Amino acid sequence: xxxxxxxIIWFVGILCEAAVVVCALKKGAFRRYFLLNLYMVGLIVVExxxxxxxxxxxxxxxxxxxxxxxxxxxxxxxxYFALCTLYSHVFSEMKAERYVKMGALLLLVGTAVFxxxxxxxxxxxMLSHFxxxxxQNLYFVGVVLTYVLWAAILKLRExxxxxxxxxxxxxxxxxxxAANYAIRNLYPQVGTMVAPxxxxxxxxxxxxxxxxxxxxxxxxxLAPARLAVIPR
Amino acid sequence: xxxxxxxxxxxxxxxxxxxxxxxxxxxxxxxxxxxxNGASPVPIxxxxNGASPVPIxxxxNGASPVPIxxx
Lengths: 232, 71
Hints:
The complex is a heterodimer. By secondary structure, chain A is an all-alpha fold.
């Protein structure tokens, strides 16, 4: 069974996820960022069921492993669509929503086909391996898409503060996870020390999104440097 | 070039980039996972070398039980 620190971080994470939904509802942003909030609601439900499965069967049980990886694949797909809605928001003035939807669907199908092709050779439990592979591949697609969206925000000189905060926090979150993974593999001897860090990173995204919904109004704009008044 | 073709091209470009990034990141990895959803603890897997599934062997040495794999 996990230690008390693991449980504490875990429940802080669930509280942060609940805070995102509450803040979005309170500030009237739930429908505007519907898929982001749907992802958070799904995450809360999954986390609670994970706790139930973990406490009933244990961390090394197949029940927990199956539920963890299958639910993670569903959540990753949900996060992928949430990321696509951020694209829709950024490109809303270009009337490119149709193309964003088409590209998102095409990329999802492409990733699924690629994952299926990779696991095709495995003899048994193909579905489980496919789910795991799809989840991992979609994670990397999400990383690349987030960086592309960062670049688009810079290029288009996007000024909507809340939208920028949502995208930047997603980018930092993905980057922290990748950095944690790299440290674990480069320095296996510190692997046990950085394991709680991965959990802490899990609480970063809901915390940053809750802040974005609570403190940054939808009308808030960043003043681009080139428009700032410079006193002479 | 039509816009639809541009969308198809960009989607494929992102897919290729993502799979390339994955290859670079996981080449020297221990097969552990990068999980992006929530703060719940990752299940303990019975083995650590590579992410590929354990092959089904046609023979058995001894009477010890087969390890339980997560997939």
